[in-house]
Amino acid sequence: MQYRSDGTSMKPAPFDYHAPQSLEEAAALLTELGDGAKLLGGGQSLIPMLALRLTVFDHLVDLGRIAELRGIERRNGSLWIGAGTTEAAVGRSPEVAAGAPLLARATPLIGHFQIRNRGTIGGSIAHADPSAEYPAVALALDAQLEAFSSRGRRTIPAAQFFTGLWSTELADDEILTAISFPVWSGRCGFAVEEIARRHGDFAIAGAVVGLELDGDDRIRRCAIGLIGLGSTPERARTAEAEVVGKALVDIDPADVGHQAVSALDAIPADLHGSSEYRTRVGAVMVERAWRSASEEARSG
Amino acid sequence: MAEQLVTMRVNGEQRSATVEPRLTLADFLRERCHLTGTHLGCEHGVCGACTVLVDGAAVRSCLMFAVQAEDAEVTTIEGIGSPDGELSTVQAAFRDCHGLQCGYCTPGFVISVTALLRDNPHPEEHEIREGLSGNLCRCTGYQGILKAVRQAAAELSAR
Fold first, then answer.
1. Is A21 a member of any domain?
2. The pTM is what?
């Protein structure tokens, strides 16, 4: 830490600050500044990393003043959420509760309400922490991620978005502008389960489950996302494929849990738990989420 | 690195200063506005001691740069009681219920609870506990704080 004679010490390394008013202006800044620039969303992950000097940038480009990055609405049958929308706004939105219940239910598990008042959905997804809730939900629901740069716009399927620990498909000059969630209809159920040592901590392991039943209580559609069980959010595709078409009564939730974690090969280990422990907890989280989601779908 | 002029309203008063962009809102309030009631514990978003209201929303002032608060309305613990020194309902409840011992975490708790009860005047017990989960206290064991929130909620809704 650098101590200064005026009594003001500052933990982050120095940087220049830019607060563009439009997307075009922000994209032009990224093009101009190159990889010395970092986008600042709500700052609830980036600022602690800067404070601890885990990362250093010459320029921060704050997206907080760009109005077009905020909003929640139905667009072409999907639920469109601007990347700059705060987690608090997502959590209290009736549109989200109706159109993407999994997202709504994951929200209270993010940090604390003070964090959610600043943190944004786009920031969380672009930060791509494998222990975070929104990336797993986006992956499980096959969200479409909208990106903008001076070169143009493109849409990236969530399945291609998360490329590694804190790494995404976004290029250095691209900005995540919105996340579009397919709206499920019919007899659906959704649940999120996770274990953390203290409320608001990053999950040791967790699972998000969405499922849809047909009129005969058979699984029509199934989505299982895994939290904290790899270097990226994971999707339990084999377990999903295993259950689709089967009658709900013939499915043992514990088997779904075991199947969901069976193919994982990069399960983290740290002082909160070994890989083996996380694997076991992960299976139980899937099982619990499966039970809640199937209960909800059956009564729907 | 270029310093920038930042202007915001703090407890109803306009404040301007030329600051380095890396100056946190917490340090701006403490060092530039001399409002040292906002305390800093961990300085990376875990402890909640530095909680203030920004445009009415309770946020960690260590997880925000002062330049991000341009044009914002900030309320610190100094702006919670009456100007004549009378404690707010939440502050008085903390005193009545032994909701503090050393007092270091208290400004952050009072701000969080003020926002919590404004948004949810009749919280269930689990909502109180969840609402307090973003603030750490190492002295009280939290029972006095929980009691204070219940008392403040009852008093505010009786009005």
1. yes
2. 0.96
C-alpha angle A227-A233-A234 in degrees, rounded to nearest 5:
90
The model's pLDDT over A139-183, given as tens digits with 9 standing for 90+, comes to 999 999 999 999 999 999 999 999 999 999 999 999 999 999 999
The residues, ordered by sequence, that sit 6+ positions from A61 with a Cβ below 8 Å of its Cβ are: A18, A20, A26, A29, A30, A33, A37, A38, A39, A40
* The pLDDT value given to residue A1: 44
Q: What is the mean pLDDT of each run of 10 residues along chain A (300 residues)?
A: 58 96 98 96 97 96 98 96 98 98 97 97 97 97 98 98 97 97 97 90 94 97 97 97 98 98 92 94 98 95
Region of A180 on the Ramachandran plot (φ > 0 left; ψ -120 to 50 alpha; else beta): beta
Chain A hits for B48, CB-CB cut-off 8 Å, are 112, 114
SS3 for A53? coil
Q: Which stretches of A162-252 are assigned E, i.e. beta strand? A: 162-164, 167-168, 175-182, 187-195, 205-213, 219-227, 234-235
Which residues of A, range 85-124, sit inside 8 Å of B by Cβ? 88, 108, 111-115, 117-118
**Where is the domain boundary, A124, A151, A182?**
A182
CATH number, position A293: 3.30.390.50
- Chain B nearest-CA residue for A15: B1
Q: Name the residue among B31, B63, B67 with its Cβ closest to that of A8.
A: B31
Is the Cβ of A56 closer than 8 Å to some Cβ of chain B? no
* Cα angle, residue A212 at apex, residues A98 and A125 outer, rounded to 5°: 55
pLDDT tens readout for residues A152-161? 999 999 999 9
For A131, the domain range is 70-182
Number of domains in chain A: 3
